[in-house]
Design goal:
It is a single chain. The chain is of the alpha/beta class. The protein has a single domain, classed as Metallo-beta-lactamase, Chain A. Strand 2 and strand 3 form a beta hairpin.
Length: 216
Amino acid sequence: MNTPPRAIIKSFPLGPFATNTYIVHHEGFTDCWIIDPSFGPAPAIAYIKQHNLVPQAIVLTHAHIDHIAGIADVQKALGPLPVLLHEAERTWLQDPELNLSNDFGQPLILPAPTQLLTSNQTLSLSNQPWQLFHTPGHTPGSITLYHAPTSAAISGDVLFAGSIGRADFPGSDFNTLAHSIRTHLYTLPDATTIHPGHGPTTTIATEKRSNPYVRP
């Protein structure tokens, strides 16, 4: 039986909040995703060009300003890539209040997403299945992407190393967030590596054992 190609998940902490923009591709393949392009995405764009990768889509874990600010720059450099966002945030790219850009004095209005994601569907990159979990709480449409053969999950601002996403923004709710973490993340294998929207990677085992905000 052939071993599935491992996912390569390259992080670029960008902008004033050191938001992790990720370039995701698989060993031996050139197709890639750009996940959460933040302010000043030039380093991520350079990585794509350096490795001769072929972008397939911009995938958003949610639509807050620091996770969407680089969309226009990425599309200018790499072409009109489709933008994927959960259906619960279908209007957020065009709403500076909901995407929080008004709070920073930089109202950002972007085109509507190209594709609306639904709960618990599967996405494909280089014929590799990535399971999509709808993990609301930080925002109504927050998602987590999970590649089982690599034991890796990209969690956006749902779960961090030793912390969780804020629940005091429009559409946020702590109880919903805690439920998402317990239901969709803490049920993953303990060895699963979490690649969060901010900060370093962690593992499910570590967070179940020591995260002070959400216990199993």
